[in-house]
Amino acid sequence: MMSTPAAQVAEDPAEEQRRMLRESALAFAANELKPARMRTLRLQPVQFDRKLWKTMAEMGWTGLMLPEAHGGSALGIADMSAVVEELSRALLPEPLVASAVFAGNLIAHGDNDALKAKLLPALVAGDLIPAVAFQEGLKIDSPVQSRAEAAGKDFVLNGVKSYVRPGAGADGFVVSAKCGDGLGLFWIPAGTTGAELKLERSTDGTDIGTLTLKNVKVGADNVVASAKVGAAAFDRAFNEALIAGSAELLGLMRGALDMTTNYLRTRVQFGKPIGSFQALQHRAVDLYLQQELTAAALVEVARLFEEGGSGDQLNALASRIKARASDAAMQIAREAIQMHGAIGFTDEYDVGFYFKRIVALSAWLGNSAEHRRRYAACSGIGKKT
Amino acid sequence: MMSTPAAQVAEDPAEEQRRMLRESALAFAANELKPARMRTLRLQPVQFDRKLWKTMAEMGWTGLMLPEAHGGSALGIADMSAVVEELSRALLPEPLVASAVFAGNLIAHGDNDALKAKLLPALVAGDLIPAVAFQEGLKIDSPVQSRAEAAGKDFVLNGVKSYVRPGAGADGFVVSAKCGDGLGLFWIPAGTTGAELKLERSTDGTDIGTLTLKNVKVGADNVVASAKVGAAAFDRAFNEALIAGSAELLGLMRGALDMTTNYLRTRVQFGKPIGSFQALQHRAVDLYLQQELTAAALVEVARLFEEGGSGDQLNALASRIKARASDAAMQIAREAIQMHGAIGFTDEYDVGFYFKRIVALSAWLGNSAEHRRRYAACSGIGKKT
Amino acid sequence: MTNWNAMSDEEFRQIARKFIEDNYPQKLRYPSKRLRWAEIKDWYFTQSKAGWIAPGWPVEHGGMGLAPGKLIIWVEEQENYGVGRAPDHGLTMIGPTIIQLGSPEQKAQYLPKIITGEHVWGQCYSEPNAGSDLASLRTEAVLDGDHFVVNGQKIWSTLAQDATHLYVLVRTDKNVKKQEGITFLLVDANTPGITIRPIMTIAGDDKFCEVFFDNVRVPAANVIGGVNKGWTVAKTQLGFERIFLGSPKLPQYALGRLEDIAMKIGAFDDALFTDKFTQLKLDVADLNALYRRYTEIVRRGGQLPPDVSMLKVWSTETYARIASLMVEAAGAAGGLDGATDLGGMTEDIMTHYYYARPATIYGGSNEVQRNILSRATLNLPG
Amino acid sequence: MTNWNAMSDEEFRQIARKFIEDNYPQKLRYPSKRLRWAEIKDWYFTQSKAGWIAPGWPVEHGGMGLAPGKLIIWVEEQENYGVGRAPDHGLTMIGPTIIQLGSPEQKAQYLPKIITGEHVWGQCYSEPNAGSDLASLRTEAVLDGDHFVVNGQKIWSTLAQDATHLYVLVRTDKNVKKQEGITFLLVDANTPGITIRPIMTIAGDDKFCEVFFDNVRVPAANVIGGVNKGWTVAKTQLGFERIFLGSPKLPQYALGRLEDIAMKIGAFDDALFTDKFTQLKLDVADLNALYRRYTEIVRRGGQLPPDVSMLKVWSTETYARIASLMVEAAGAAGGLDGATDLGGMTEDIMTHYYYARPATIYGGSNEVQRNILSRATLNLPG
Questions:
Q1: Using N-to-C axis directions, what is the helix angle for D309-329 and B278-307, rounded to 10°?
Q2: Burial (0-12, 13-18, 19+ Cβ within 10 Å), A376
Q3: Residue C269's closest chain A neighbor by CA?
Q4: Quick one: which of A228, A282, B238, C318 is 20 to 30 A from A99 by CA?
Q5: Within a 13 Å sphere around the CA of C242, how many CA atoms are in the beta-carbon half?
Q6: 3-class DSSP state for residue B75?
Q7: CA B54 to CA B63: how far, in whole Å?
C-alpha cells in the first residue's frame, strides 16, 4: 500500500527550491571546504578566507535573506538554514551566520534606508564583513550598559562590548546602546577613533573581539536603527541568528557523527570493529536521536517563525531550537572524542575541529541553559491561569 | 607484597561488633523474612507483624540506640544502620526506622524523664510502636503551622500532620507544634479524643496517616520536649532517621540489584544470557557504582555524625546521605524493572516489592531534591567568603 | 455515500471533531488507565453505527477508505480530545491482515463482525521464554486431520480477557531456521482447552493476560498466509502503526497534568523545577516535530524509513522522565498509591510512574529498538 | 636513619607537610597542565637529596620503606598542597618492577639513577592498532646474537620526549596466544633508530609522544621477567597504583576552581546552578568516601578487590561533569581558549574541559573498566 519511497513523492515549490539550495551548498562544500584549511587559517591574522567569502557571495548566500532592493534574494530563515547546515557540516570558519544573517538582517531591519543602500549591496557582493557587538556580560540577558548620548543630530557612544564574532576580519560593527529610553543601533566601521578592538582566541581557532568605545562619534547617517525600532530590530535579527546558528550546529553534529560512526565501523579492537560492541551502539543511537530531534525541530521552528507571531512567541521559538541544538551538539562532540579514543584527542585528526567549533558555537549567542530560561520566560511557563 | 585478603586484616573492636550485628540480622532475615509475606500483610488492617516486631525487640534492635537506663544498648547510628541495611535487603515492612530510630530517639532526646521511663522500656520490649507526626506540607521544609497553646500546665493542640509513618498500627504519635517562640513535642496516644487519623495507602503496601488535631488536650506528663529543647531534639532525631533511612534504602538497592544481576545471568534471549549484552552490562555496572557510592558514603557519614559537630554540619551530613541514597535507589528501582522486562512489571514477581518500597522510602523524610537543597543551605554553598 | 477524501482537510477535521464531541463520553476523556471493553464498547458501537469505526479500511469492507492524510487528522482529533483506546486489535491489526492476506471465506467470516463489534480480538505472540526474542516461540501446532492441535503458553496478551477471538503465532516446524517454522492462526477464544488468566501488575490492574492452550483444536482453514509463513505475516503488520507507538499523546498528556499540579502546589516558584519542566516541555515539543516528520511521509503516501523507531524510544523515555519529575515535585506525596490531595487538587501521582515502566518494554523493548537503529540506520556492524 | 614507620601517623603527617611547604615551589602549586621535566626537575632533585624521592621503595634501594599507611599520608599531603606530578614512571612503575623482577645487575644499573634523577623513564605500551586491546601489539623484537632488533611504532607515551630510557612491550613470538608472545624490554632512549615525536593535542600541548623503532638494537640482557613473559610483568605493575587513577584530586581541584568562579560571577544567585553545583559537590564528597574505602584496605595491608575500577570511572566522569558545568556557567566565555576574564578573575575555562576528554580514555578506557567490573565484580557472562 505504501511502497512509494519518500523521495519520489511530489515536492511543493518551496521544498524544491530548498533542496536545490542544499545541493548547491553540498557541491560547493565538496569542492572548496577541506578540514585541512582549518590548520592553515588559524595561524593567520584573519582566520577565514575573504576570497572564499567572495565566492560564497557569488553563490548568492551572503544576500540570501536580504531585500531584493539591495541585491538580495529575500528568502526566509528556512532556506538560509539549509545552506548554513550543509556548509557547516564540512567545517566553515567563514562568518555566514554572524555577518550575513545576524549583522546583515539587523541592518535590514533598521530604519535607515540610506545606510542600507550603502552597506547591504556591499554585503551581498561579498565586499563587506560586518559584525554585531551586543553582549556586555557573560550571559545574553546581561543588561546593556553602553550609552549613546545625542549630540545634535549625531551621537557619542561609550561602553564595552564583548564576545564579538567575527572579531578579526570584521569591517565594522553594529553596536547596541541605550539611547534615551530605547535601544539604538549604530554602525561603527573598524578603526573608528575611540573604538578599540581587543582580540581573544576562541576555541574554534577564530579570534573574537572585545570592543571598547570611548566617546566614539557616530553621525546620523550611521544610525542603523533609531531608539524607536532598535529593540524590535535587534530581537528579530537575534532570533534569526539563533535559528541559523542552530542550523550551523546541526551541520557540525552531522559531520562529527558521520566521522564517528565511520570510525566505529572500521576501527578494529579485540578482533572486531568497535561498532559491533552494543554499549557503543546504543550510545551512538542516542546521539543520532539527538541529531534528528534537532533537525526535526529546526524544520518546525523555521516554518513557524516564518508564519510569524508575537515577539514572545518568536523569542520562544528561537530559544527552543538553540537550546536543543546546543545540548545535542555538546553531547555529540564529547562522545565523538570518547568513541574515537586517544586519536580523537590529537590535533592532527579532524574530529577535534568539530569538537571545538561545537563548543564555541554552543556558547555563542547563549548556551542551552540560557535559552531554556529565555524560552520559559517567553512562553509563560508557570504563568498559566 | 599485598597479598593478605582484606577479611584477614585485624578489625578494631567497634568493627567487630558491627560485623556481629550484621551477621545476626542476616541470619534473622534468612529465617524470618520472605517476600511472600508482603503479599499477605498488605491485605491486613495493619501491614506489618507485631509478633515479628516483638522478636526483633528480643534481638535488641528496637532499643539498639536507646539509653541503657531504659533498657537500650546505647549504640550509635553506624551500628543501627548495619542492622537496618541487612533487614531491609530482605524486605522489612516493620517500622524499625520510623518507630525505633525516629520516634524512639526523639523521645530519648526530649527533656521529660518520666515520660521516657514510661515509653522507652515499652519500645525496647517491643510492646510500643510510636510514630512521629511532623510534616505539614508536601516538602520537609514546609513550615509547621500546628499550635500548642498553654492551658495551665497542660496544652491544647490544633493542626494537621500528614504523611505519618507508620499510620496503621501506630500506638501513639510524637507531634511537633509551635509553642510560644519554640517548637514543642507532644505525645498523643492513638485514639485520643480530637485526634483523628485518616489512612492512605503508600505504594509500598503500608498505610500512612494524616493526623488531624482539634483541640487535643495534652497533659504536662505527655510533653516529650519543651519548647526550649524541642527544635534541637527534633533535628537530631530527624538526622538519625535520615541516616538509618538511607541504610534502609541501601539494603533495598542491594536486594533489587542482586535479583537483577541474577536475572541477567540466567535469562536467555537470542541464544545467550541477556547479561552477556554489553549495553546491559554497562548499565548494571553504573547501578553497582551508585550502590557502592551510597555504601561508602554511609560509612563515612555515620562515622562523622558520631564524631559530632555543629547543627548545620550534622544536618548537612544527614542530607548528603539521604540525597545520594534516594537518587541511587530510584535509579536502581527503575532499571531493575526495565532489565527484567515484562516479568518485572507483574505483581507475582518479587522485584516489584523492591521497586515500590524504594519509591515510598525515597519520598519519605524528603526526596533527593529536597535534601540537596538542605545540604546546600546547611553547608554554606555559595556563601564562601 | 460520503466521499471523505474529496473534502478539504479542514472540512474533514471539523466533521471529525464534531462527531467526537457529540458522541464520546465526557467521563472517559483522558483516561489514566487502559479502558476495558465493558467501559468503552458503547463508543465502539456508536462509531460502528455511524460508519466511522474503520476509517482506514477500504469502503468495500465497511471502512471509510480514508487516505492516509485524512486518517492522521482523525487520529489527531481523537488525541486532542483525549479519546481512550478501545480494544482495537481487530481494527488495527488482524482486520488489515485479513484484508491483505485472507481468503475470500476468511474475509466474509471475520471482517463484518469486527465492524459491528461482535468479535473482539486479542493477540497471542509473546511467550515466557520468547520476549525480545519473539522468533524463538515454542507454542506448538500439530496437524491432525483437518485441524491443528495447539499446545503451549502465551503471555502479555493485552486485554485478552475481553477477546472473543485470538490471533496466534505457533510453531509448526522445529527443524528449520526459527523464523521459518512459524504459522499464523485465527482461533475462537471459546474453543475448549483455552484458559485465559489475567496477570496482576505492580500498578494493580490486570490489562495483560496469560493464555494457555491445552490440546486446542483449530481448523486448518484458519491459517493466514500459509503454513510456516507466519513470521512474514506478523511483519507485514508493522506498517505505519509503528508511528503510533511513538505518538506524543501520552507524554503530552502527562506533561499537562504535571503543569496543573505544579501550578497548584507552587512548584514554579522554584527555578530548579522550572528548568526541569522546561526541558521536558521542549522534549515533548521536539518529539511532536519529529512525529510530524513521519506522519508527513505517511500523508504523502511515502514509505517509512527504519529510523521511525526513534519515536518510540524518545516518546516513552520522555514520558518516563515526566513521571519521575511528577513524583519528585509531589514530595512526600510522591510515594502514594491512588488519588491523593495535592494543593487542593486530587491526583493519582503514581499511575504515570507505573505505566512508564512497561512503556519502555512492550512493542519491542527500547533496547531492541536501539539494536534496530544501530544496524538499519547507522549501519553499525552486527 | 629515621624510622618513619615508628612515628605516629600525625607526627609523620606534620613532617611531610612541612617538607612540602618548605620545598615545593609556590608557583607550581595546582598546575593546570602536566609539568615537563624542565619545570619540575628541581623539586625532584630536592626530594632526592633529602631522601624523600622514593617513599615506597625499600630502604636498601634508596627508598624510605614507608608502610602503606604512611605512604598514603604522603600522597594526601602532596594532593592537599597541590603538588604537581613529576615524570615519575621510574619511581612508580619501572623501579618497583625492577625491584621485584630484575636481576642483581639490572638493579645495580638502574635503581640508583632513578633515585638521583639521572634516568628519566617513559612507557611504550600502546600502538596505533593496540589501544584498548593492548595485547594485540605488533612492535617486533627479533633476536640477533645477543641483541634484540626492534621494529615498530608506539604511541601515547606520556612525556617520552623528556625520557632518557624507555620500557617497552614487544612481540617476540607471533605463533602463540597473543598474550603469550610479549616481552618486556628496557631501552636506552639514545639508541640509534629511535625517533620520538611529540603529538600535538587538541588542548594545544604535546604531553603525548609517538615513538618509532627502526632496527633498534637492544641488549638481550635488558629483558625483565623472561622472554615471552612480558604480559605478566605488565600486569604486576597494576598494584595499588590503580587507586591513584581514581584519586579525587582532579575533580576536587576543579570543583574548587568552579566554586571560586561561581562566587565571582554571582552564579550562586541562580538556584539551578546551585543545585547542579551541589550535586557535583556531593559526587566529589562520595568519591572521597569511596576512595577512603580502598586506601583503608591498602593501609591495613589488604588486597584490592577488582571493583577498585569504580574509582577511575567515577572520578573521571565527575571531573568531566564539573568541567561541563564550568563551561556552562561561563556563558559566552565558555568557548574561549586560554585565560580570560571572568568577573574580574582570570581563568582558563577550557583546560578542564579539554583534559576531561583523555581522562576517560587513558589508563584503560572507562568502557574497558566497565567490562572488567561487569565480569569480575558482577559476574555477568562474557
A1: 90
A2: buried
A3: A382
A4: A228
A5: 22
A6: coil
A7: 12
- Candidates B269, B270, B272, B282: best to mutate against A (most CBs of A within 10 A) is B282
Is the dihedral angle over the CA atoms A154, A158, A164, A167 positive or is it negative? positive
**Amino acid letter, residue D170:** V
Q: Please name the amino acid found at residue A259.
A: M
Exposure string of A227-243, with b = 16+ CB inside 10 Å and e = fewer, is: bebbbebbbbbbbbbbb
Instruction: Write phi, then psi, for A100 (nearest 5 degrees).
Output: -75, -45
pTM of this prediction?
A: 0.94
Contacts of C270 in chain D (CB under 8 A): 271
φ, ψ for residue C208 (rounded to 5)?
-105, 150
Any D CB within 8 A of B284 CB: yes
Touching partners of A (3+ C-beta pairs < 8 Å)? B, C, D
Choose the closest CB to B346 out of C200, C334, C338: C200
User: Cα–Cα distance between B34 and B30 in angstroms, integer?
Assistant: 8
Do the chains contact at C287 and A293, CB–CB below 8 Å?
A: yes
Taking only the tens of pLDDT, chain A with its 385 residues reads 333 344 445 568 888 999 999 999 999 999 999 988 999 999 999 999 999 999 999 999 999 999 999 999 999 999 999 999 999 999 999 999 999 999 999 999 999 999 999 999 999 999 999 999 999 999 999 999 999 999 999 999 999 999 999 999 999 999 999 999 999 999 999 999 999 999 999 999 999 999 999 999 999 999 999 999 999 999 999 999 999 999 999 999 999 999 999 999 999 999 999 999 999 999 999 999 999 999 999 999 999 999 999 999 999 999 999 999 999 999 999 999 999 999 999 999 999 999 999 999 999 999 999 999 999 999 999 886 5
Question: Which chain A positions have a beta carbon within 8 Å of D331's beta carbon?
Answer: 137-140, 363, 366-367, 370
Grid look-up 551581498 returns: A124
Query: If you search the block for the grid coordinates 541487612, which residue do you land on?
Result: B86
Give this complex's ipTM.
Answer: 0.94
d(CA D37, CA D158): 12
Full set of structural domains in chain A with CATH: 13-129 (1.10.540.10), 131-226 (2.40.110.10), 231-379 (1.20.140.10)
Closest CB from D199, D328, D334 relative to A346: D199
Q: Does the beta carbon of B10 lie under 8 angstroms from any beta carbon of chain D?
A: yes
- C357, C362, C368, C369: best to mutate for the B interface, most B CBs within 10 A: C357
Given the residues D11, D21, D241, D367, select the one marked as catalytic. Answer: D241
Separation CA D127–CA D151 (nearest Å) = 12
D182-237 pLDDT per residue, tens: 999 999 999 999 999 999 999 998 889 999 999 999 999 999 999 999 999 988 77
D338 contacts A201? CB cut-off 8 A: yes
Question: Cβ–Cβ contacts within 10 Å for residue C50, how many?
Answer: 11
> Three-state SS for D191?
coil
* D332–A138 CB contact, under 8 Å: yes
Surface-to-core class of residue C136, CB atoms within 10 Å of its CB (0-12 exposed, 13-18 middle, 19+ buried): middle
* Residues of chain D contacting residue B9, judged by C-beta atoms under 8 Å apart: 297, 300-302
Find the closest chain B residue to C202 by CA distance.
Answer: B347
Please give the grid coordinates belonging to residue B201: 495507602
Structural domains in chain D, sorted by start: 4-86 (no CATH), 121-233 (2.40.110.10), 241-377 (1.20.140.10)
For residues C249 and D245, what is the distance between their CA atoms, to the nearest angstrom?
A: 47
Known catalytic residues of C are 241
> C184 near C167, Cβ under 8 Å?
yes
Query: Is C11 touching D (CB cutoff 8 A)?
Result: no
Judge contact between B284 and D374, C-beta under 8 A.
yes
